[in-house]
Structures
1.
Amino acid sequence: MLKLGERQTLKIDHRKSFGVYLGEGDETVLLPGKEVPEGAEIGEELNVFLYRDSSDRLVATMREPKITLHETKLLRVKEVTKIGAFLDWGLEKDLLLPYHEQTRKVKAGEEVLVSLYIDKSSRLCATMNVYPYLHTDSPYKADSEVTGRIYQTSDNFGVFVAVDDRYSALIPAQEAAGHLRIGDVITARVTRVLPDGKLNLSVRKKAYQQLDEDAQTVLKVIDEYEGVLPFDDKVSPEIIRREMGLSKNAFKRAVGHLMKEGRAEIRGKRIYRV
């Protein structure tokens, strides 16, 4: 059985002037002559990758692609056209990243995290929606420090991260403080390994370690408002996130810490620097 988008070992079935056909019976695929190893004989086995050429014909290649079916890899954008972006994946025909499979606009020269899939027309294409293709068997445990790439954001769920460009992880919405954008590479802490193997992350330190830093952030914003913050700790989470880049719980802890130290006080639904 010929497997599009995968490497497989096939026997040379017969030879033509323009190459050799691999496989057997009705299931054969052309390996162009320029790629046939010197001295290769009928019956010999070759390890090849199957894809479609510029005429959408199934062909084999001895080249090693930078990505295979359902893998997730970082690929460079060669050009952006009216139908989408074309990526360098190590083969003669560049790989299409359709517009509807882009989670943000891409530009020539940059590297993007993508997975390889087969579209409805039986063609190989790239997608930036890598969630279904990420692995859940990471070696990491709670409190591990990891590096990951942001590939999607959601107001409801949080920030989706591919740890090591391979493992599925999420920064929950309540932990997604600061300005986190698609494509950013971040260092984070594993807060939990879920039963299905996916990771929950935080870009913040443990609460007791983060408290002083958050308190300084709050003081800085109060100073920007000339010593009087025009809201108290009961304001909406959206305003807190916009003004401070903190979750509401982190903000309330920081304000409480400042009040306990006598550096701030709440009066008339405002926070004053003391």
2.
Amino acid sequence: MRSDLDHLPEKQQEELARVRTLLLDEFEAAKKQGSGGTSEWRRNGQVLKIILFGSYARSDWVDEPQNGYLSDFDLLIVVSHPKLTDIADYWYVAEDKILRDPTIGRTVNIIVHTLTEVNQGIERGEYFWTDIARDGVTLYELPGHPLASPRPISPEAGLAMARAYRDDWLPKVESALDLAAYAATKGELKDAAFLLHQAVERAYICFLLVSTLYFPRSHNIKFLRSLAEDVDPELAVAWPRDDRDARRRFELLKRAYVEARYSDQFTVSGDDISAIRTAAGELLQIVRRVTRDRVQL
């Protein structure tokens, strides 16, 4: 795995250096304040690696701010203990500071796993992990913690897993859409918004599992969308980035996961619910088609 960033413009290199510093500094601060007391795993907890993956690692990123599209930075953080993967305890502050830092000009997505989890995925030949092992760029690492050697999964096994994921997740997407439609007919627009969030989240999860055999432990549909569209840009048709209303409604849907359930200040109109239902339905049709093509290979 390479460690140079010579393929990136200087601005992006500087942004990644700032991101790396914030992640490492805030992790050390979180260890002193987080749960776990004086446990050895917490006291001696370490970040073993920070790896850039996705479009900025492969050199096929998009940088079109005039069209509302900037590729995200996608980072894998490898830690020394499973409890250190807890976003709320160890990574929330770092994520928040990165989001608010004026010197970082694009969205930064992180996934956090132990070295054991990563290496098991690589050894099983799961596409997501083997792609990182092949294309990733190391931004930080401690010596003595190598990644495993990939063992490519057989086409038959990969196909069987993809089919099982598709059969499991597509009905969940359809169910959430049906429930959202019912809630809307009853005038329960906040419930409809939450259920539409669930439909869209499940659609991206279905696509990622079929395509990569992995999805991150996240309810952030903006992150899931970024990962999914990185694999297949066709999914962007459902939420065109050059459409201001589509961008606004997607952000509204993202907020609905928490706010539609818990905030008295969250409001959504019937017109927005109708438009979001249409976009979610289109996303389902795209996911249904592209996953069908993948499992029939």
3.
Amino acid sequence: MINRELIRTKIVQLTYAYYQNGNRNLENAEKELFFSLSKAYDLYNYLLGLIVAVTKEERHRTEIAVQRAQREGKEEPSTKFPYNKFAVQLEENKTLCEFMEHQKTTWEDDIESVRRICNLIEQSQTYQEYMQSEDDSYEADREVWRKLYRQFIQDNEDLDSLLEDKSIYWNDDKEIVDTFVLKTIKRFDPKNKSKQELLPEFKDEEDKDFARKLFRATIINGEQYQHFMSEASHNWDFARLAYMDVVIMQIAIAEMMTFPNIPVSVTINEYVDLAKIYSTGKSGGYINGMLDTIARHLISTGRLLKNIEQKGDNEKEE
């Protein structure tokens, strides 16, 4: 689940913190990086658990409504949503159950937040259309949860605030993690029952290695990379750079120098995007030009053995 976009984001955060922290211990900083990544994986599981929590709350509500209807001799409400086939399969998922069993906090601790999401769902057109539909297939059950997740969990400021309060590591993770939850919903297959595989923490050892190598290269060779910036910046006002800009460019240079198979244009584009999020309004365009200049300088002096497109071929749009 932890992809390179998330790894780059965490390395920007942890590198900045490393230089701001007076106690610069690389080994401890690296442990903090991997702990931060593991917390992102926890968030992935926790958000899957929210679907289960909503389902259980809806089941509880329906049971109360059924009892009331029986007492009053009225028609009993539908149990279609509380026993949604996809949600039940997720509820029984062995991997998710094991994760939730080992958590100190559960969604029961935030039941009011769960209830608010239930209220939003029940009032939605998506829910009403689902309840009225005669399609009782697994595919329809899975699809309604994909839609509901996007409408009421992915885009939910109150939920974002709640998660940020629970963990400082989740402040910037949810947007990326949401995409993996949606991917997981799409991958679920009824034939796999409770043994349906969730996304692994790392796709493979190569991505884990990418995180370790990039972070170490950034810190160990930091002075050298900043020297590269100075060398190539005679036409740029380097002294007026925001400190975060320096950090982002240092990591970008580390990636260029350490990973021969990643094209320069890909690296530049990735860190321009990060600059737009974590630095000033002008940083994206500035870093785009600076990194292009630095890469060309390193290639021309034989220190970077990569090709680079002619200027304008693949520049980042501002």
